[in-house]
Automatic annotation (TrEMBL):
InterPro entries: Acyl_CoA_acyltransferase (IPR016181), Bact_Acetyltransf (IPR050832), GNAT_dom (IPR000182)
Any Pfam family hit: Acetyltransf_7
Species: Neorhizobium phenanthreniclasticum
Record keywords: Acyltransferase, Transferase
Enzyme Commission number(s) from the entry: 2.3.1.-
Protein's UniProt name: GNAT family N-acetyltransferase
PANTHER family according to UniProt: AMINOALKYLPHOSPHONATE N-ACETYLTRANSFERASE-RELATED (PTHR43877:SF2), AMINOALKYLPHOSPHONATE N-ACETYLTRANSFERASE-RELATED-RELATED (PTHR43877)
Domain of life: Bacteria
GO MF, one example: acyltransferase activity
Keyword DNA damage in annotation: no
CDD domains referenced in this protein's UniProt entry, alphabetically: NAT_SF
Amino acid sequence: MVYFVRTASERDVEQVHALLGETFHATYDPFYGAVQVQRMVDAWNSPAAIRSRILKRGGEFLVADNGKDIGGIGYAAMYPKMAKTAMLHQLYVRPSCQGEGIGRDIFAELETCFPDAEIMRVEVALKNTRALSFYERLGFSEVDRMEAWGAPNSGLPAIIMEKRLLPH
């Protein structure tokens, strides 16, 4: 199936919500358990939270769409805590679509969306070795670690990775 990357709209909220629920459980249940993961989905990926990210000024929310289904999503925004830095907040591909280049295609588009950014930054759950490997293949490298991925006091350690962006 061929997926095309496009900007998300409010009409995508329900499909994005379903994709994030499915993908979070497939990715994180082995590390944190289904109950903890459902709490994460409910807190971070409610339809209202997704709608807010889609509508946020200065952010870019993309979907990979085949005309029938959404196979992946990506969301990044300028990072107010660091000059000239864009933060990649979410990049998830439906488990049945992984390995088809959708994540790479979404990231390639996100890389071009922030002309003032010199760095793209991402926080990756320490136990998510598949994602760590993916980001390394995209040119990211570890710059720091943190004890609370996703939310303050989460107790979920993470690796902070960065990639230098080419001037536009």
